[in-house]
């Protein structure tokens, strides 16, 4: 392992849990990194930021903080933690001060795919199981996509509405992986958020579930960030 930061903290997004990070976790630990996975409840942005800070508090040195999808909002909020040396966004939201996931998805570009999110049930959101494979995980095997669809974590509407107070990307160097076949967050929106954040950008052909379908590309970008800081 090259010199640089050795701790990595991974934050998952909505509808899924931290177990999807296993392929990335395994690649990084094999290369000598100490990897922690936050099991953020996705009930509220504040709660998820608190869960992330709790894991950051446990690190024995600086860490690269990584977020996928909604996890990008979480790391934007929690990443002001003194232990964060770099931020890595994986097909993720990167809200600015006063923005939420809701505000970022309020006005989709013409022709962009619309995620098949069902109407809220008791304050929680789910993706249409029948459309989960095509929208979220188009490049994963059908059996794996079906399991993800059937094991969805309810995503709290309060999490989507949670507003970022002081975006960490304004203070800390960031990297961004654009998933060019993403049907959840349009790639042009990903590029725009990455550019606004001043991130070092990589693009890889993959679905929204790129952390599972292209784990080597994700791990490589994390290692790039770790060695750069």
TrEMBL record:
GO molecular function: hydrolase activity
InterPro entries named in the record: AB_hydrolase_1, AB_hydrolase_fold, Sec-Metab_Biosynth_Hydrolase
Key words of the record: Hydrolase
A UniProt-annotated Pfam family: Abhydrolase_6
Ranges for domain AB hydrolase-1: 8-220
Domain of life: Bacteria
The name this protein goes by in its record: Hydrolase protein
């Amino acid at each position: 392992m090259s010199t640089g930061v050795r701790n990595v903290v991974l934050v998952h997004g909505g509808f899924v849990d931290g177990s999807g990070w296993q392929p990335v976790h395994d690649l990084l630990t094999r290369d000598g990194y100490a990897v922690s996975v936050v099991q953020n409840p996705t009930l509220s942005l504040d709660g998820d930021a608190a869960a992330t800070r709790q894991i950051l508090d446990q690190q024995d040195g600086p860490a690269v903080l990584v977020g996928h999808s909604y996890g990008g909002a979480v790391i934007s909020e929690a990443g002001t933690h003194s232990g964060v040396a770099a931020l890595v966004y994986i097909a993720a939201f990167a809200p600015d001060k006063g923005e939420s996931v809701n505000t970022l998805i309020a006005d989709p570009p013409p022709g962009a795919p619309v995620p098949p999110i069902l109407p809220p049930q008791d304050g929680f959101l789910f993706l249409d199981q029948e459309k989960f494979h095509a929208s979220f995980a188009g490049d994963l095997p059908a059996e794996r996509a079906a399991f993800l669809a059937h094991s969805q974590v309810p995503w709290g509407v309060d999490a989507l509405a949670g507003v970022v107070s002081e975006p960490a990307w304004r203070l800390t160097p960031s990297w961004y992986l654009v998933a060019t076949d993403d049907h959840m967050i349009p790639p042009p929106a990903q590029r725009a958020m990455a550019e606004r954040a001043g991130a070092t950008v990589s693009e890889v052909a993959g679905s929204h579930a790129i952390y599972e379908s292209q784990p080597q590309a994700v791990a490589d970008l994390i290692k790039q960030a770790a060695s750069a800081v």
